[in-house]
């Protein structure tokens, strides 16, 4: 845990800033002391609700170093709004948007010196856990909670940098349940783990793209796009998958480039046909824009184009990262500068 550790030589999410911000929820009221504190271990009762009944959710956003050396958070208010929706889906009382926003700003400001230069960034992980010590509360929400934010200097999410990924298309198993698809809850990730590990073992795939019911949605940790020089296609929003903030940023950037946007269902047959002439990529805060080079489906291994990252994919990626790192104008007001 040092400001000098290189996030490109450590697995994503294993280095941490030395501060955190913590609020507690007891008797229907949130208490946030209003400042970051040194990062330290928590002491939790073994009956803690989140450890038994998964009353947990989190966010993932990033702060980026700007050309003048300052640090700015990308799309903070969108993450705040999504976390409040997640907490509500856990049937718990959310904090006010103002409190959550400030808590994230306080932790990230305290850890801002850990922000690497681009293409690195400071990952921000606000987390909510139900803390009531009650193993009988399987069918009731936790009456107590903790809301905290930690930071992690990061490089590439996928080992090996920007390289074409191999994706296995899973048509039998969904990523999660229909009612929890759009909730950023830890339970969703452990549900996706089995199919993902099986695909890594059986097909040497990097990720699984979930397409149960012939409906291509998302991978375990990123949204999915088809594109070519003119068109950008992604699944229309509903409760079945996570409403990615990177997804929404890419759609806006593509609109700004006058690309044609289609938000609609994508059947596996269309994806297969697209491989012959178009590009595909994943999008997420951690993944940024990750090109797909190979798709494994129905017993076939299909190469997308020449198997290398596509030109439109790389153009969209550069446009996004240039806004995040202050190289291009932030014309949609996506950056929240931090006071150093
Ligand atoms: N889908 C899942 C399941 C995710 O975990 C993520 C990552 O956060 C995304 C999509 C992309 O969301 P965002 O762009 O907001 O990071
Ligand atoms: C993100 O992109 O923020 C994610 O949540 C992915 C992840 C590291 C689980």
Write down how many β-strands occur, each being a DSSP E stretch of 2 or more residues.
17
> Strand-residue fraction?
25-35%
CATH superfamily of the largest domain: D-amino Acid Aminotransferase, subunit A, domain 2
> Biggest sheet, in brief?
9 strands, antiparallel
Rg calc: 20 Å
CATH class of the largest domain: Alpha Beta
Distance between the termini: 21 Å
Question: Which percent range fits the helix content?
Answer: 10-25%
Average pLDDT reading? 96
Low-confidence stretches: none
Q: What molecules are bound to this protein?
A: pyridoxal-5'-phosphate, 2-OXO-4-methylpentanoic acid
Number of helices: 7
Quick take:
This protein has 340 residues and is an alpha+beta fold. It has seven helices and 17 strands.
What does the model show?
- The structure is a single chain.
- With 340 residues, the chain is of the alpha+beta class.
- The protein has helices at 49-53, 76-89, 97-110, 186-203, 245-256, 268-274, 311-324, and strands spanning 19-26, 29-31, 37-38, 56-58, 61-65, 71-74, 121-130, 145-154, 165-170, 207-210, 223-227, 231-234, 260-263, 279-284, 288-297, 300-303, 335-337.
- The chain folds into two domains: 3-154, D-amino Acid Aminotransferase, Chain A, domain 1 (2-Layer Sandwich); 165-323, D-amino Acid Aminotransferase, Chain A, domain 2, CATH 3.20.10.
- Strands 1, 2, 3, 4, 5, 6, 7, 8 and 17 form a nine-stranded antiparallel sheet that branches.
- Strand 15 and strand 16 form a beta hairpin.
- Helix 2 (76-89) packs across helix 3 (97-110).
- The model has no long low-confidence stretch (mean pLDDT 96).
- The chain binds pyridoxal-5'-phosphate (PLP) and 2-OXO-4-methylpentanoic acid.
- The site of 2-OXO-4-methylpentanoic acid (COI) has 5 residues, from loops.
């Amino acid at each position: 845990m040092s400001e000098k550790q290189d996030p490109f030589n450590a697995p994503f999410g294993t280095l941490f800033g030395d501060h955190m911000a913590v609020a507690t929820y007891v008797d229907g009221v949130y208490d946030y002391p209003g400042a970051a504190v040194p990062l330290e271990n928590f002491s939790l009762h073994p009956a803690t609700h989140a450890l038994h009944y998964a009353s947990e959710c989190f966010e993932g956003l990033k702060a980026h170093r700007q050309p003048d050396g300052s640090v700015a958070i990308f799309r903070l208010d969108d993450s705040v709004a999504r976390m409040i929706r997640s907490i509500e889906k856990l049937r718990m009382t959310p904090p006010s948007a103002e409190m959550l926003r400030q808590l994230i700003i306080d932790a990230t400001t305290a850890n801002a010196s850990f922000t690497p230069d681009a293409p690195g960034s400071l990952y921000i992980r606000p987390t909510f856990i139900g803390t009531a010590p009650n193993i009988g509360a399987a069918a009731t929400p936790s009456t107590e909670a903790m809301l905290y934010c930690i930071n992690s200097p990061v490089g590439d999410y996928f080992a090996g940098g920007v390289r074409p990924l191999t994706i296995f298309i899973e048509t039998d198993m969904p990523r999660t349940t229909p009612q929890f698809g759009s909730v950023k809850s830890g339970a969703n990730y452990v549900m996706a783990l089995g199919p993902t590990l099986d695909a890594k073992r059986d097909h040497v795939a990097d990720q699984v793209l979930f397409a149960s019911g012939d409906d291509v949605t998302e991978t375990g940790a990123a949204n999915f796009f088809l594109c070519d020089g003119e068109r950008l296609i992604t699944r229309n929003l509903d409760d079945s998958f996570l409403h990615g903030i990177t997804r929404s940023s890419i759609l806006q950037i593509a609109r700004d480039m006058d690309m044609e946007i289609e938000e609609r269902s994508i059947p596996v047959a269309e994806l297969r046909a697209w491989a012959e002439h178009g590009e595909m990529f994943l999008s997420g805060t951690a993944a940024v824009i990750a090109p797909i080079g190979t798709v494994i489906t129905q017993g076939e291994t299909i190469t997308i184009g020449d198997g290398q990252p596509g030109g439109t994919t790389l153009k969209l990626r550069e446009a996004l990262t240039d806004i995040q790192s202050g190289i291009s104008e932030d014309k949609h007001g996506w950056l929240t500068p931090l006071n150093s």
